[in-house]
Amino acid sequence: MTDDRLRRLAAYRAARRTLSGGQNATTVADGLRKLTDIAPEGVDLDQPVDFYGNGLVEELERRTAVALGTQDAAYFPTGTMAQQIALRCWAGRTGNTTVASHPLHHLEVHEGDAYAAVSGLRAVHPTTEPRLPTAAEVTAVRDPFGTLMLELPLREPGFVLPTWDELTATVAAARERDAVVHVDGARLWETTEHFRASLPEIAGLADSVYVSFYKSLGAVSGAALAGPTTLIEEAKAWRHRYGGQLFQQWPAVLTALHGLEHELPRLPEYTAHAKSVAAALSAAFTGAGVPWHRVHPAVPHTHQFQVWLPYPAEVLLEAGTRLAEEQRIALFRFWTEPGTPPGISYTEVTVAAEALKWSPADVTEAVEEFLTLVRKVSEA
Q1: Which InterPro entries does the record associate with it (predicted)?
Q2: pTM of the full predicted structure?
Q3: What gap in Å lies between CA 336 and CA 344, rounded to an integer?
Q4: How many C-beta neighbours within 10 Å does residue 340 have?
Q5: Are 45 and 14 in a shared domain?
């Protein structure tokens, strides 16, 4: 770990107030304390540890299927593995190795073309717009495809979601093409408030759903693939072939069970507060005379959204670190500078438990302090 990263870690851990949540400011000692403190309801901690997927793993699979309203679920060490196996299974069942997905989908951006290199699949893109595809766009795809893959929410353009009517129409258009629908629901847990629908209703639109346990629920790691029992049985066979049948997984599984029990019920509250935080951030940047800024979406669809500012990432990162060191306020975390246009950077804001303590006035005060440091760093 670099000296700069150690410095940021120390600053963020010492902060008395944190706006944007995340697990990147956690030490091994923090993780061990959390693990020893949790005891999910109905879980016998005196039972034997799991052994190649039994015991606690099976309990997590059962509870996940219940939460999503599916017949069955399979636990995976990574979401990448879960999704590759789901697509492989559906390609075999439909007889079509083409997947319709978005070019900004996790499948394309963060998985090293595994769908093609490992499973021999091919992707087509109904749209390149920074949103989910519409029904008309799905209908207009020229090539036959066996699976339509939808990331809900679509992270890269700002954790965006369609409306419920748009989503159901898109799913119906795929069905008319004789395609199955797989949902990349890494953050599906967060979507109920936007859709005004329950998790079983949302998951019920698809033939299979992948969910993450660490991206919304705060687990150490892990994911699940949920769907009909016959698909899940096949997926478990491929899980073993892909090297995902780990000897013991109880630490990650315990934290996932804890997340289902304690974090999942709070996500609607986080999502509601994210709207207040986003509005306060936008007003604060406007009031401070920042020449250009953007909070996107202006009204967040989930408890996560983007903030864009007209400064280099290294300047914003340094200013944020100094704010944590000098004022013990952790406002933003990491910044990314796409390069086009130059000098513009963005960060992802995650509103979780700590952010519930922030009022609009708190946000305004912190932004003013942050921008003062941004100017100092820029002038240095």
Answers
A1: ArAA_b-elim_lyase/Thr_aldolase (IPR001597), PyrdxlP-dep_Trfase (IPR015424), PyrdxlP-dep_Trfase_major (IPR015421), PyrdxlP-dep_Trfase_small (IPR015422)
A2: 0.95
A3: 9
A4: 6
A5: no
> Which positions ≥6 away from 181 have C-beta within 8 Å?
147, 148, 149, 150, 171, 174, 175, 205, 206, 207
Strands, E, within 200-303: which ranges?
208-212, 223-227, 294-296
Using CA atoms, how far apart are residues 86 and 78, in angstroms rounded to an integer?
13
Q: For residue 141, how far is the Cα from the chain centroid?
A: 27
d(CA 183, CA 185) in angstroms, rounded, equals 5
Residue 259 lies in a domain: no
Q: Are residues 25 and 62 in the same domain?
A: no
Does residue 361 lie within any of the structural domains? yes
Neighbours of 342 (CB within 10 A): 8
Strands 122-124 and 98-100: parallel
204 & 294 share domain: no
* DSSP designation for 22: -
Give the single-character DSSP code of 20. Answer: B
d(CA 152, CA 296): 16
Which phi and psi angles does 101 have, rounded to 5°?
-150, 175
Q: What is the mean pLDDT of each run of 10 residues along the chain (380 residues)?
A: 83 91 75 86 91 96 98 97 97 98 94 91 97 98 98 97 98 98 97 98 98 95 98 98 96 96 97 98 97 96 98 96 95 91 94 96 97 93
In angstroms, the CA 312 to CA 309 distance is 8
